[in-house]
Amino acid sequence: MNYRNGCALRFDLHTHPLEGSCITKPSQITRDSIGRIVKMMKKRGLDGIAITEHNDFSLGCEAAKYAEDFGVIILPGEEIDWGNHHILRISAFGKDYYILAHPRTPFEYTNQVKLDAVEFGSNRGKFPLAYQIAEERNIPLVQNSDAHLLCDLGLHTSFVDLEAYLRGEFRLIDVRELTKYHHCSIDSLYSNIYATQLGH
Ligand SMILES: [Zn+2]
Ligand SMILES: [Zn+2]
User: Is the pTM of this model over 0.85?
Assistant: First the structure.
């Protein structure tokens, strides 16, 4: 697996770009509003995003209708309040995937929800508890921006297996898989990615 050879897609799977543009209803979404989001996606070198507004799946669904026009991937999603936690629900290929967002306390809802990944970092900082949760549940560690402003989009990203995606499967790649492959630390993995993106 090597993202430099194009085998991984780069996604920001935790974003609030509509809320950040004061859009609160699907009817307020226009081609222009999505165009502004896509412009930032391209600037940050993203293949796709999930739109995960708070407890509202309808905004992401409406936004996703424009993705094909712009040649990008927009997955519908939402950020759900779950006890003391926030869970991202993301829809891909007709299935729902669940990512535990910014964990700050242990996650105890073992039977109610099956997590597909856990965030260990975002624009807001690092979440050391994620390592323990990932270990216990054998799930990937990922990062996303949690951007509430458009300019913050794509500053932290997740990786999705390209070959699986082309087969119609959504497989998140554990960041530890990438660091092992590249024999580097998480920080140097990300600084490499941003250097590549900036054309250095
Ligand atoms: Zn949250
Ligand atoms: Zn959020």
Answer: yes
